[in-house]
Amino acid sequence: MRRRPPFALVLIVFVAALAGAIALTSGGGGGRASSNPDLPATGPVRTCVAAHAEAAAVAARTLRAPVTARIPITVTERGGGASVTVSEAVVEHAVATRVLEVRRRAVARRRACATGAGLAAARSRALTRAYKSALAVARVRAKAGASAAVQAFAARELPSLIASGQREADARAQVAAASDRRTLAAQARARLP
User: Fold this and answer.
1) 39 in a structural domain
2) Is 105 within 8 Å of 55 (Cβ atoms)?
3) Domain hosting residue 84, numbered range
4) What is the pLDDT of residues 87-136, one digit of tens each?
5) SS3 193
6) Is residue 104 situated within a structural domain?
7) pTM above 0.70, yes or no
8) Helix or strand run (H / E) with residue 95
9) Which of 75, 58, 30 minimizes the C-alpha distance to 147?
């Protein structure tokens, strides 16, 4: 048996590789018009797609906490063997307010199907429908989440708001009581015999 020269061996390997590459790129030589056997050659095309959408919502609430501070004042003046007592209560009202705002985001995923003249048209319609549906759901979820969050936030903030309003009302009542004590003392002295 005769040995082939190395050049001939390289040429045979090159031609075999080239033939294999041509066979792979031509798709087997079947002559099909479309590479996807599931798609019809003519007529409307139906496809389904899924889409994600994100929405944000803001819920705002104004907390109001009305508070009252009451300080009783009694002044007694003595003179000339008699005493006069004058009493009064100082009442101060205050309304503490705080604006709360909560922002929430939500994401939703929806699937929709559509028919179109071609795959691109059907896919575009389906994607639009799926996105609109997902966006509507995401908006509802975001709004509900923001509403629930602002309610919970208000419940946590109300005690501190009441305490803050009470401190303000108490301080104003103390200032008013000091002024009223002097007035009551003058009234009691005027009533002495």
Assistant:
1) no
2) yes
3) 45-191
4) 888 899 999 999 999 999 999 999 999 999 989 999 999 999 999 999 99
5) coil
6) yes
7) no
8) strand 82-116
9) 58
